[in-house]
UniProtKB/TrEMBL annotation, chain A:
Name of the molecule in the record: histidine kinase
Coiled coil regions in record: 9-67, 220-254
Broadest EC class assigned to this enzyme: transferase
Single GO MF descriptor: kinase activity
SUPFAM superfamilies to which the protein is assigned, alphabetical: ATPase domain of HSP90 chaperone/DNA topoisomerase II/histidine kinase, GAF domain-like, Homodimeric domain of signal transducing histidine kinase
InterPro entries, per database record: GAF-like_dom_sf, HATPase_C_sf, HATPase_dom, His_kinase_dom, HisK_dim/P_dom, HisK_dim/P_sf, Sig_transdc_His_kin-like_C
EC numbers, comma separated: 2.7.13.3
Superkingdom of origin: Bacteria
Annotated organism of origin: Pelotalea chapellei
Keyword set, alphabetical order: ATP-binding, Coiled coil, Kinase, Nucleotide-binding, Phosphoprotein, Transferase, Two-component regulatory system
Span of domain Histidine kinase: 270-481
Catalysis: reaction(s): ATP + protein L-histidine = ADP + protein N-phospho-L-histidine
TrEMBL record, chain B:
Source organism superkingdom: Bacteria
Protein name: FIST C-terminal domain-containing protein
FIST domain segment(s): 34-231
Positions of the FIST C-domain domain: 232-379
Amino acid sequence: MNEKKVSDIPRCNQAIDELKRENEILAQQVKRLVKAESKLYEFQEELDAQLKEYKDLYQLNRKLNARLDMRQICRLTIDYVIQNLNYERALFFVQGPTGTYQVCSLDGYYEEAEDSEVAGLSIEQDDPFLAPLFAGSEYLLCKAGTETQGLECLTTLHMHEYFVYPLGAHRPRPVALLAVGNTAANSEFYRKVDDSNGTLLSMGNFVGLVSSSIENYFSYHQLEESEARYRHLNEILEQRVRDAVKELREKDRILIVQGRQAVMGEMISNIAHQWRQPLNILGLLAQELQMIKQLGDLNSEHIDENVNKTMKVIQQMSKTIDDFRNFFKPDKEKVEFKVLEALDKTLSVIEERFKKDLIQTDVERTGDPVVIGYPGEFTQVLLNILINSRDALIARNVDSPKICIKVFEERSKTVVTIIDNAGGIPEEIIDKVFEPYFTTKGPEQGTGIGLFMCKTIIEKNMNGTLSVCNVKDGALFRIEV
Amino acid sequence: MGTSVGVGYSLSRNPQEAGREAARKALEQQGLSLPDFVFVFATVGYDQQLLIQAIRETTSGAPLSGCSGEGIITQAMVAETNFGVCVMVISSDEMRFDNVYVRDIGRGTDFAGERLAGEIKPLLKADTQACFIFADGLFFDFDPFCRTFETALGAEVHLPLFGGLAADNWTFGRTYQYHDDQVFSQGISSVLMSGPGMVASGISHGCVPIGTRHTITRSKGNIIYEIDGIPALNALEDYVEDGWRDQWNKMSLNLCLGFKTPDTIKKEYGEYVVRYMIEKEDKEGYVKIQSDVQDGNEFWIVRRDKELIRNGLQDISRQIMAKEGTGNPKFVLQFECMGRGKVVFREQEKTELIRSLQEQIGGDVPWIGFYTYGEIGPVSGCNCFHNFTAVVAAIF
């Protein structure tokens, strides 16, 4: 038994050694495990901080994109520096019209006295402090405990460690500056200002975002200014067009008035002609009364007969006046009217004159067409064309002057043609007869607006057409309404 | 009237604005203007005096107690940041809050325990429910404090202690305690709560031992000089990466020490009590924890286990409900170890975890807390100190 125990001792010792080795291996494994877990927690905390930062940047980006106001961009930027990047103080400078950078917004904890001092802070653009930035440096960095080189303005920043970043494109200087940092007294509770990769990456991402936002702001406002200029030009152009149209309409109106006045002169001549015969009759009646009285045959019967005749003549003269007055009455609105009635009215006005000039007028009527338009203006057109024809017939001393008027319907339109035998219009000018102030009659007789007025009335006021062409012995004017 | 409680918080960087905003929100929540008592927890980025002054002005000078933490907690809001403050205002005609304080605990926490007991004793009543302790986490050794405190109060008095050790966001320079207008360090701010009702609490750590056993071979009080016969730092350096001496604050979080739990509380608490090494000394190679040890004590390196932490938080709500049923608490105070915050959990995980605990206890219950350098809460009737735990005190 004892022999067996003694022989087991080496085996036991071997087992104990093995257990010790295993124990040692296990202890080492545990130590490695603890180290690994420490590292894991460390990485996890870093990862969490990074994720939070990217999430915060995303939120900031959304907010910045929703705002295109420089003050709001300032506010969001410095708020982010304090709340998310966890620096003690932040100053946002914006370049003024003179080039000086002035504090637009500030955040963080300042004591009251510092607050007002910092709020009024400005940095001249040629301050040597900023020179490295304008020479291409991405940022200015002052770490805690390092010497600053003659930067008086920084003592006013009330930061003992800081970053200064340019914001936005250089035009030629950056449009804004961002200063972030801490005081020495409180820096241990804030994010450190250092040039570690993590810090620079974090600041770089943030500053890049804000710079883009500032560029968007400027682009938006440039676009807005361009749009405003374009709108302004457009308005000016539209106003000019409106003025031109108005001016043209006014000219048209004046031309029409002038045309009417010209026709009116013609009419007065016609009235004079028409009144000549009744005036003769009235003269004869007066002489007759005197003669009967001298003969001593004057009685009430003679007087009554004379008065009746006189009154009839006067009534006829009065009717002539009414006819002319109605002829020139201006049309206020479009109405339906019969073309033949307008033609008869026109002819009644000029027939006596035409008889005197030995001009024969033939009228061919087919149906009794009705059109919508201005009857007064329409008769004025007919009158103008007829007078033009008469003038041509007289001027060319035509042997058997004749005007043929046809009224008919063609393809749902009412057509009036006026054909004379005055020899036609010379081909070189036929295209110009409807132009304003074009006349072949010379300054004494013609105004050059009669046919222009006719075309305006038919085509603009009544949506019809007025054209002219030469036929066998003369000219043909064609009205389609 | 009963008890009205409102909670507000602010993350503003300006101490005056933050103090006013948090206090105003708390008052507005219950329509209060003159509260009977105010709890304040804040982080250390602020000028603490300006912060407390603003809160005092806004709360009409109501009695105030609290301390600085590594982060703040309210319903649905957890912020581990240098700039955060939360305020709880209480108005009650049934509960009473008496606040006291002691300073200079650096002279010895045993001395501090005795002095605090001296302040508290005249205020103790038959209906006193609990005492809240907010002590400087950089100068606190629980065991001598508790021993002298309980001795000075007398054996006939059993006063449950709840609270957390003030923190300073890993700077390990200076924590703050608040008492009315006073802001101080190296002190204890304390609140005695009396009146009808009761305090139900839950405590959970969520750490597991790994590796082989270690033995403390030389120590004094809360200082461990040697482990396994070699200087303590040398014994621990194999567990950490190079450069650990410069990053001790966070490195030491991953080197928690697990000691066997005393039999008296083992059943309720579990196998191990966990300790955080708050301080090291490079020259002598020692480490310091926040309770006492003795030569021959054995310990294991423990690691925080996320799954256990999650399950542990559910246990807390079960513990509280088991004590008080399903009714809603009047308010809740939570003392959460800074080692269970962002250093171990992702931000969203952490928020969801605490939110889930809050919903189990009461999603609309006034809730305030902070991330600590150490937690205090009774286990099996004994006042105990904890690291890496969540201590939740629900006041019914």
